[in-house]
Amino acid sequence: MNRITVYERADFEGLSREFTCDVPDLHELDFGDCIASLKVVGQPWIAYTDPKYEGEPHAFEEGEYPSVERPNSFSALRLVHHDLGDPQITLYERPNFQGACKVVMEETNLAYGYFNDRVASHVVQRGVWLLYQHPGRGGWHCLAWPGECLADYKPGLNFQARLSHLRPLRPGRPL
After folding, report:
1. Last residue of a domain, which of 79, 111, 144?
2. Which keywords belong to this entry (predicted)?
């Protein structure tokens, strides 16, 4: 079963709660803005800084996280239900899916090629993708969901053609 166990202090200390389904507002369960460590079993979970899946998303794949990058800031949790087994995203050099394109099926550091800081739109065929502003999973990041067709990064992501790294979320182990 897919689940996330969240703890109020680092190193899995303090009060904890276990969830197996989406939680749009952790404040309603008296556990908002207090998560400092967590454990994930199965599919990845997305933690959001604002209720109702708004704000900055943070992805947590299967594993243990004795500390999180933004402790005491998560207000919602969402289980990733999508098939993550065969990811694919198409990147386009210009807005509206124009210009040169590149199909990506695995983690890629664009800093080593033509498309670094040149992507202006994308189409996600399969999987859930993390898009990063800087090489090596650095800087501002966002999520791209299956079926998403983002025609222009400037108003949609405020990346301003600065995508440098991307990776698909990994599926959890089958139980």
Report:
1. 79
2. Repeat
